[in-house]
Amino acid sequence: MPATPSASYSLTLRVRLEHKPGMLGEVLTAIGNAGALIGAIDIVEVSQGHFVRDISVDARDQAHWELIIDAVKGVEGAELMDFTDRTLTIHIGGKIAQANKYPLKTRDDLAMAYTPGVARVCSAIKEDEEKAFQYTIKGNYVAVVSDGTAVLGLGDIGPEAALPVMEGKAMLFKEFADVDAFPICLDTRDPDEIVATVKAIAPVFGGINLEDISSPRCFEVEARLKDELDIPVFHDDQHGTAVVVMAALLNALKLTGKRLEALRVGMVGLGAAGIAVTRMLLRGGVGEIIGCDRHGLIHTERDDWAEMHPLKRWYAENTNFSKRSGGPEEVLEGADLFIGLSGARVIRHEALARMTGDAMVFAMANPEPEVMPEEAAPYVRIVATGRSDYPNQINNVLAFPGIFRGALDAGATEITEEMKVAAARAIAEVIPESELSEDYIIPSVFNRDVVDAVASAVADEARRAGVVRNQGPAIDSDARATSRTSPPARPVPAS
Predict the structure, then answer these.
(1) Strands (E), 48-179
(2) What b/e readout covers 388-415, taking b as 16+ CB neighbours within 10 angstroms?
(3) Is-contact 422 456, C-beta < 8 A?
(4) 211 has which bridge partners?
(5) How many other C-beta atoms lie within 10 A of the C-beta of residue 116?
């Protein structure tokens, strides 16, 4: 099945057309017949006898570009002057930049922002290090840390190639939650070196977001940093996924009438995200989970039991108590929910008939899920994926911006399991029960109510649990929301 045209493979075609009736229509028809989606059409230049237009189109992949280009070249009276990869274009020079919050136009401005006035601020922090959260960027600054070993669907591509993804993550933090973030891509795969480096840079940051570090090293790195730092540490590949899966499930259960404690879950893909999702489901009271990795269904009597990583041993000891064996499709037998965190088309759609009535499928492999939604539809009631071009997109951006916003606002020293559960419930509750449907169990990533709901729930739970530093009143969420659209006020001098 061909992929759907996507903005990720978009082109701008610069076309010189003869100035005669119907020319533009002929070009657009040729582009449409080539299977592309047409976007903006702009006039660049008009001259006697000709005009030049830029035409934006979405393609399926890079191979599709050739079909589109050949189609334009085949139109008599049209000349393709140039074409531009729109995705590469927006990355030129990087996607983020530092901006000053206050002007430096006078000697007074300079005296307060830098020398000699800054010395007074340094002295205040020297006397009380907690004031760094008040008088520096630290209170609203997150490090996005990766070693580039498990990037999206690309795998181990190294720190330089991972940088565009980490820049994008920083953009999401800023856009959705007004959290300042900076990408840190490390040229080491040694857990000891990663931990030591993050600890060394931690004084600048109010939180650490670990990203795209391969399993099982990611578990060790996160656990050690959580133990050794007094700021929130969050591995988004694990916990962001788990939070949004739980949110989608809570709403799906409202439609199906199924109960968490009676739920039978089949899962394929037991990497970082798969293990984190399983942990959250078990804490939520899910009755039975059966998981499958690349070697088959996991249980305590599998042949490779003695060689299993400790986390896989934990998985085997806490799931599949009937010790069922087999391949990926065996997890579907009698399952109410299938969760896929593995790869493209690992199950046949016909095998979904082995699930129970009103079954649910969360197939989250990207860019191609474990089973395509249109193929799953005849067999199940609810389908969710990780893709934006289908309903019910399970996307981590629903979780991590609000989680860090709430943690930073509360002055949290860590992100607890209860804070993650609070985030999941907050995401789910953004959609009123009266609006829930099979195609709408999870909010849009552009729903601006999500971050505020998650941040409030996370901050409240942090304060309730007492995992906050003693730094005076937390930042009011309404004031934070106002600051996103208003210029910052001058700070009030400390008394």
Answers:
(1) 50-59, 78-85, 141-146
(2) eebbbbbbbbbbbbbbbbbbbbbbbbbb
(3) no
(4) none
(5) 9
> Which one of the listed residues 169, 258, 312, 420 is annotated catalytic?
169
The predicted model gives 328-356 an average pLDDT of 97
CB-CB contact of 272 with 219 (8 Å): yes
Q: What average pLDDT does the segment 72-76 reach?
A: 97
Catalytic-labelled residue, pool 95, 114, 126, 323: 114
- Whether 135 is catalytic is no
pTM of the model: 0.90
The alpha carbon of 447 is separated from its chain's Cα centroid by a whole number of angstroms, namely: 15
CA distances 158 to 150, 185, 240, 475, Å, are 9, 9, 22, 38
97, 263, 428, 430 from 441: Cα distances, Å = 36, 18, 8, 10
Vertex 415: Cα angle to 410 and 416 (nearest 5): 115
Q: Mark whether 114 is an active-site residue.
A: yes
Q: Which tokens go with 120?
A: 């007074």
* pLDDT tens sequence across 110-155: 999 999 999 999 999 999 999 999 999 999 999 999 999 999 878 9
Query: What does the pLDDT read at residue 490?
Result: 33
80 exposure class (CB count in 10 Å sphere: 0-12, 13-18, 19+) = middle
Peptide bond into 116 cis (omega under 30): yes
Buried b (16+ CB within 10 A) or exposed e, 133-165: bbbbebbbbbbbbbbbbbbeeeeeeebeebbbb
3-state secondary structure of 9: strand
pLDDT band at 162 (very low <50, low <70, confident <90, very high): very high
DSSP state of 7: E
